[in-house]
Amino acid sequence: MTTQPESQQQPQAPDNLDALLVVQAATLLTLEAGSAYAATITLRRALQAFARDANRRWILTGSSPDAVRERDREHLSQALRLELRQLAAATGRDLGPILRQEAERALELGARHAGEQIGLAVDVADLALDETARGIIESTPQAAISHLVKAAEQIERAQSPLDVQQAIGEAQRSVTAVNTGTTYLTNHVANDAAKQVAVRLGEKLLWIAERDACVVCLKLSGQIADPNQGLGFDEFATYGPYEPPSVWPYGMPLMRPPRHPHCRCQVCVWLGSAPGQPDLPERLKHEAARSVLKGWSLPSESNRVRLRAAESLLASGGRGLPRSVQEEAALAIARGRFKSRAVPHYTPREKHHV
Predict the structure, then answer these.
(1) Second label for 206, Cα 20 to 30 Å away, from 30, 168, 170, 266?
(2) 47 and 185 assigned to the same domain
(3) Alpha helix ranges (H) inside the chain
(4) What is the pLDDT of residues 266-308, one digit of tens each?
(5) Domain assignment of residue 130, yes or no
(6) What is the per-residue DSSP string for 270-295?
(7) Domain range for residue 142?
(8) What phi-psi label fits residue 155: left (phi over 0), alpha (psi between -120 and 50 degrees) or beta?
């Protein structure tokens, strides 16, 4: 931590912590999107050009006589295979430094966010990338390369336009691998910064989930962990009908998001509820249960899972939510769908002066 006057050394959460966390969550999502773009843009453009060229050249060989066509396609498959292997080599060479740079940016953002949560300036030089972050930086290029190498092997055996398309599809999975690895990395690093600050101060961590988070993350929202004691969040927590995914890295306690790939959760350094201030953990749990009964969720989670989660929550008492909310959920379960799965956004009405 940076040195400050004695009167300012004690951490103190701002009065508007709940509003601050909303802004911080949006900022972190923006960073994740920017990092994913920076990590994938070169590979994405190269594969777009490769796909156009491969399709065009393969079609042209189809107009040749049989003997010439066979020879030309053999030469073409060798050339395309070489291009993919060169792209794999470039990815292995260039992607690691980009990921490290984006991880450092996430660490800086996490340090700033943690400082805002406790009213102290946090020096990013006091923080470091942990072993998990370093592992992601190493494994993400390897995952991308494996898809490119497999695509090169498929191109070499290609006998038809469909074979070429399947190889191109395999190559494009490398972009998905990089995107997933990068967003996981930046979310992990930013949240690990909060964990490092909490450990330095001897404080705890509070889990915050988006209102349309998955049934696993909603169950975690409002939970408190103590990293100083090695006590993590409940790794078995879920509102859903199925067991939650295993914690990664395997065998380690759940100390921070991401809970799964593309997780949008965050943790904050938790100093406890100040006198006269709302009980934020309880509010988060209340809102998470409300989201379950309302069916608010992303399209990536099935309607069936959300209905089963709402049914289970109602069976356990509805967590004290208003009767109108519980009755609405019961009607949704009966008809097999929610009225809407989108989180409503409040728009103030315009005032008209007469």
Answers:
(1) 30
(2) yes
(3) 17-61, 66-118, 131-156, 161-201, 215-220, 280-294, 303-315, 323-335
(4) 999 999 987 777 899 999 999 999 999 999 999 999 999 999 9
(5) yes
(6) E--PPTTS--HHHHHHHHHHHHHHHT
(7) 11-201
(8) alpha
